[in-house]
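Task 17 of the worksheet. Students: predict the tertiary structure of the chain below and write it out as structure tokens. Keep your answer in the requested format; marks are given for formatting as well as content.
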Amino acid sequence: MSITAAQVKELREITGAGMMDCKKALAETNGDMEAAVDWLRKRGIAKADKKAGRTAAEGLIGVASNGEKAVLVEVNSETDFVARNEAFQQIVSNIAQVALQTDGTLEAISAMTYPGSTKNVAETIKDAIASIGENLTLRRAAVLSVKPGVVATYIHNNVAPGLGKLGVLVAIETDGDMTAAEAFGRQVAMHVAALNPLALTPELVDSSAVEHEKAIFSDQARQSGKPENIIAKMVEGRMRKFFEEVVLHSQPFVVNPDQSVEAALREAEKSIGAPAKIVGYLRFALGEGIEKVETDFAAEVAAAAKG
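Model answer:
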């Protein structure tokens, strides 16, 4: 099959590998991007960095909190122009506020009465589509709660209070000083925004992801030509390193990379004045997982000119 320059560019951005290596990897895997990443990694050409979900949708992430409970919502629009519209921002903010009164399911949120209206959220979105002139979608929502304790929030690239392109919630369970717990929780939320851990603990890492990494490391180790018992130890060591890199508790804390998040939590307990535990986190990045249809603008203009 024919490999396009756009495919090579995307693979380079994901892996950091050279152009010719990326082209060869795509050719060897018939253009399968995931397989091409693995092909490069098995040959030690690409690093094991997680690639971020491709952001394709516009819109905003909204967050709302009442202390022990917080919610994230994602409302998509077709263009960033609409996302910068104050009317759209107010809609997202209001949806987040009413979502706080629900279990976080889209069905429950859509059925809630919209603030200052007799209509529900779903009907309000339909009206907004007609008035704004773009398709709007309440794509997803999630709730995090803890008792006793506090759910800290963080919005990255915020365009207005509680609104931005990336939102994080972190639940700290404690009966100590809530102000101190929330301050530390916000730092952890910033950490989650930056490093995007796969799970809270090693046990919670998706088993398919673990097996996938083991397979990659095994292939790499076998290229050394060492005996199987040595290879097993090499894989075990690399898996320990893998968990350190992707598990929240063991990651180097962004506020102080000399200590892990777990060590930072133990230190934070001094100001909190009581035992504390990170019991959960949520991270929404705008449009992650949605494929974007790329268009050639110059070609479109040329076609339009031809009538």
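Marker's comment: The longest helix spans residues 228-246. The two ends are 32 Å apart (CA to CA).
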